[in-house]
Amino acid sequence: MPARAAGFDIPPAPAPVQPLLLPLFAQTSLTNGMALVVVERRGLPLVTAMLSVRAGSLSDPPGKSGLAELSFGVLGKGARRGNTTADASALAYAADALGSGIEISTGAQASRLSMTVMSNRLGGSLALLADVLRTPTLPAHEIASSRLQLQETIRLEATDPGALASALAWRLYWGDTPAGRLSTEQSLARIRREDVINFCRQQLRPEQTTLVLAGDLDLAQGKALAERYFGSWRSPRSTSTHARPELSMGPQALGPSTLLVDLPGSGQSTVLLLAPYPPHPPLRSSAAERSQLRIGALASAVLGAGYSSRVNQQVRIKRGLSYGAYSSAESLPAGGLLLLSSQTKHQNASEVADVLRSELLRLATEPVPEEELSARRAGLIGEFARQMESTQTIAGMAAEQLERGESLADLASYSDELGKVSAEQLQALAQQYWRPQAVRSVVVGDLTLAGEGLRQQYPDAWVIPAIDLDLSSDSLRRPAKRH
What we know:
Blueprint: E1 25-29, E2 35-40, E3 46-53, H1 67-73, E4 78-81, E5 84-87, H2 88-97, E6 103-106, E7 111-118, H3 122-134, H4 140-157, H5 161-174, H6 185-189, H7 193-203, E8 209-215, H8 219-230, E9 258-262, E10 269-277, H9 287-304, H10 310-318, E11 325-332, E12 335-344, H11 349-365, H12 370-386, H13 391-403, H14 414-419, H15 423-433, E13 440-445, H16 447-450, H17 453-457, E14 462-465
Parallel strand pairs: 2-8, 9-13, 9-14
Antiparallel strand pairs: 1-2, 3-7, 3-8, 4-5, 6-7, 10-12, 10-13, 11-12
Protein name: Insulinase family protein
């Protein structure tokens, strides 16, 4: 038998653990109240400029869900630039000429505009972003076009079991609160250009905006550029600072513990489990309150982050019921939501729902072995470190911290805090949040092909044909037609 060769037959020994080196997150503000964060990262001549505005879907007024997404979406469709007006094509061409594009996104608490450019083109990108944010023209035809695109997206998602199940889970958990009021075709149809104009007048203000610059520059350079392009920006005197009572409204459970949605013709069923999750603590919170999010992140990772996570092992590896099972979590100041998800053959939906529920509840009854905790910690810390490799993800990380009301200084202690989470803390969190009565299920698929297993497993479930769904209704059903 030939000798085994090192490097081919024998894998190399693991390298020593490398220290996690974080860039410096420097903060200041302009005289107009606009916040500035500069993250110096030398080595490549790239800079990401990201504008974070504290206005998202939670700012939508009742009956007009989707206003924030529609309003931010049309910012890049027209703006005044000096003495001229640039339409959508001209703005896109200007971004292309800088070697980039304007990326716009809307979340629950904030919305962002960003560009990543070569360092020597940063001034041009900030000039473009400033015009788009400060002097949008909000053309009526672009608002109408964007509304139609959003409505078409909603129609498409209504035929996708995964997207539909996620929307339903969010609606069931948050109920009739700003977080639970989802965009619908009807709510978008009620939005007029005047609504968009008023929204932008109220929300696009320097004191509600943070500029994050991440990459090949320092604080002095960043502040000089910020003052040049945003220093003259002033809030309208006639508009008061927007209050945010929506952030204090906690979840209001809607509907049953189990919802079965019949989507004939769907290729597979999506199975979702939803359960409470720690909220984001207030800015001046105790260390114990802040640690809940680290414990929750590790618990979620144990459940469904990575190939060897618990739900993936049980659903995919051991039973072959799906190509994967996953966990995700999102926290708002008034509450958080954990989701366990998997797609499977219709006839397997009942078994998958059982497995997901069993694995979630097991965290409250059995401590997680330290070896498993270590593996999941390493995965989270590795993902955190990878975000430091891109100016775009660094900027996004800084923006997210501030959007959630957290301190940028907390980023430096992330890996240390995660390393201190014990199995006992994880089990205590599971016992607090994941009691059997708090866990709910959503299954979207072809119920005829699924057979009787689901209905027998959940005899008290709401069963709704997808064609009859109305996400704006407390019953989730369209009103019955009168004959």
